[in-house]
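Thought: the user wants the 3D structure for the chain below. I'll pass the sequence to the structure tool as-is, report back what it returns, then summarize two notable features.
Action: structure_tool
Action Input:
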Amino acid sequence: MRRALTTLLVLWSLTGPGGAGAHETQSAGAVQVTFATDAEDTLSTQGPTLLRFTLTKNGAALPGCRCRVLVYSGVPSARVAPLMDVRLEALQQGAVSGAVPQVAAGAYTVVLDGRPVTFGDFDAFRLRYTLGTSP
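Observation:
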């Protein structure tokens, strides 16, 4: 199933900030991440949902981040594998976007895990976003 979800995943594309429905900003040390979806902070049960992350450090685009996006059904647990696990190696203007395939109704957690490409650029971080579903 994980392979099927990965296959259904729309190719991650590099984009600039803006253009999504809902926005939530979280901070982790000097890093700020603005998360948005095209479905008003939900995941769609009718088709793929676009996710967008804009990463900044002190107001400027975050340099080189080895980021990883994980999507869990419900609350993340060490005992349960994520529905989706995508590694993101390159950012352009501190932003990246991609799509989560159509999901079943329920609650989901999106986890963004980031580590610097160059040691010392910023501290590693792990941020969570809780989403429900919409028809």
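Final Answer: Structure generated. The longest helix spans residues 2-8. The longest strand covers residues 125-134.
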